[in-house]
């Protein structure tokens, strides 16, 4: 058997896209709560106040806040060994600056973790998943200010101590490398520059973004050190949106451009969090883009001391890189590229490449030599609820089957892969567009793009299939 004994099979969600209850239990507004819905062609808007006539999908999301016992029971029925979720920072510190945490918020997660353990699952908790208290954006312009480092560490101190006997696996920031891209200014860093309303086309300031990333690196390193002091058994990882790229051709210009995109898109952040130092190519990038990173005394030592225990990442697709401006482009997860003629694509145009996952796992393990987890992977599709509340999603089964096969091959190659949590294991709203119609789950949530519906849960065909996969530890994929 290729998958090791104790392999962590499960599924993944995020509080801002799944939890709902945005103004209940003492929770304050988060950056995600200020995003309107969007569509394939209409981008989400960022508003500083809630505007009448606009719909904010993260406010209700999939309503896990009121359905958590039912949802966790469904995960238990599938046989999950681990459930990746996030804690909403603004549920613990509504503004982010309070001296004392919100006890009602803390109790909610106590109950969630207790339910998970009843079902035999380990929580895998992302501490900050594309959200922070919106007050911190208003007061400090988010992570552009170093003030957020101590506020984040205070938040970590509370949850590490509160849940030290309930949570073993932690991730400091979700897809931290989105901060290397303009979209990540607000999404990952909470930076809202003057004049920005269009989520997909933000007023960008690379200096603020990369300084904000440095602050997150420092916060992550401090959190790792603190977590290990509170409980030496904690396993604390990084999380990268891995965007695998291939040169479109053997033109050396394509190869060099692809190499540079892989460096800045994927390895810039991973090197800091795993190796404990900025990579050699960072200084040249800073110089070319007029970026001056302000470091305090002791920052470099702190990065070395606060390296992560394991590397986790999301993988959805690959793209090609070319210097030819006339080639057909594609959309995708955070970043696009050139269409690969050898691959098919999803309903959203994301190219499907299981072999790319094996390639990625080998590249990562060769570079870092630490345990790896695939904590997001899946197929966003238009699912149809048919008679008898059935969803026949053979296309999702096909997608996941082929990716699991390639993970197995990577393990046979010698990669230390310890877990797999497909994204959106129960339907949730899209981070990029706010749509519910872009569905990933094994469980269908009866809600549309505007929050209309019963919010009843219905098992898809993939539910039964994934249950069988887990029970066989990845051997029965039919």
From TrEMBL:
Q: Which GO terms describe its cellular component?
A: cytosol
In the record, biological process GO terms are: carbohydrate catabolic process
Q: Does the keyword Hydrolase apply?
A: yes
Q: Any idea which UniProt keywords this protein has?
A: Glycosidase, Hydrolase
Residues of the region (Disordered) are 20-40
A GO molecular function assigned to this protein is: beta-glucosidase activity
PROSITE patterns recorded: GLYCOSYL_HYDROL_F1_2
The UniProt similarity line reads: Belongs to the glycosyl hydrolase 1 family.
Stated name of the protein: 6-phospho-beta-glucosidase
- What organism, scientifically named, is this protein from? Amedibacterium intestinale
């Amino acid at each position: 058997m290729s998958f090791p004994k104790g392999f962590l099979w499960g599924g993944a969600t995020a509080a801002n896209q799944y939890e709902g209850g945005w103004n209940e239990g003492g929770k304050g507004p988060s950056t995600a709560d200020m995003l309107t819905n969007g569509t394939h062609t209409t981008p989400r808007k960022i508003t500083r106040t809630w505007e009448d006539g606009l719909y904010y999908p993260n406010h209700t999301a999939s309503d896990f806040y009121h359905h958590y016992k039912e949802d966790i029971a469904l995960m238990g029925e599938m046989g999950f060994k681990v459930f990746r979720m996030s804690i909403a920072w603004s549920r613990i510190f509504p503004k982010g600056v309070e001296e004392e945490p919100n006890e009602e918020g803390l109790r909610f997660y106590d109950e969630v973790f207790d339910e998970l353990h009843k079902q035999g699952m380990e929580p895998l908790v992302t501490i900050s998943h594309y959200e922070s208290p919106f007050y911190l954006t208003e007061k400090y312009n988010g992570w552009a200010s170093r003030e957020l480092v101590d506020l984040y560490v205070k938040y970590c101190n509370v949850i590490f101590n509160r849940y030290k006997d309930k949570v073993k696996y932690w991730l400091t920031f979700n897809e931290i490398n989105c901060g290397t891209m303009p979209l990540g200014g607000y999404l990952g860093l909470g930076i809202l520059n003057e004049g920005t309303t269009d989520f997909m086309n933000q007023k960008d300031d690379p200096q603020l973004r990369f300084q904000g990333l440095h602050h997150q690196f420092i916060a992550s390193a401090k959190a790792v050190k603190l977590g290990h002091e509170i409980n030496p058994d904690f396993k604390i990882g990084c999380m990268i949106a891995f965007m695998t790229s291939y040169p479109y051709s053997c033109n050396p210009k394509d190869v060099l451009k692809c190499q540079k995109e892989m460096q800045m898109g994927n390895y810039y952040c991973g090197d800091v969090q795993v190796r404990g130092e900025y990579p050699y190519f960072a200084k040249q990038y800073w110089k070319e883009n007029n970026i001056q990173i302000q470091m305090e005394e002791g920052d470099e030592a702190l990065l070395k001391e606060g390296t992560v225990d394991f590397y986790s990442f999301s993988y959805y697709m690959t793209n090609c890189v070319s210097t030819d401006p006339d080639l057909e482009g594609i959309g995708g997860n955070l970043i696009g590229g050139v269409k690969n003629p050898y691959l098919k694509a999803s309903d959203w145009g994301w190219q499907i490449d299981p072999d790319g996952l094996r390639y990625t796992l080998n590249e990562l393990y060769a570079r870092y030599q630490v345990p790896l987890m695939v904590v997001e992977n899946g197929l966003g599709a238009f699912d149809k609820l048919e008679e008898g509340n059935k969803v026949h999603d053979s296309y999702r089964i096909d997608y996941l089957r082929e990716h699991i096969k390639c993970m197995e091959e990577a393990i046979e190659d010698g990669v230390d892969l310890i877990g797999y949590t497909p994204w959106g294991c129960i339907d949730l709203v899209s981070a990029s567009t706010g749509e519910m119609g872009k569905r990933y789950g094994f469980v269908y949530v009866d809600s549309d793009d505007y929050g209309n519906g019963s919010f009843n849960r219905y098992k898809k065909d993939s539910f039964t299939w994934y249950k069988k996969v887990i029970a066989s530890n990845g051997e029965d994929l039919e």
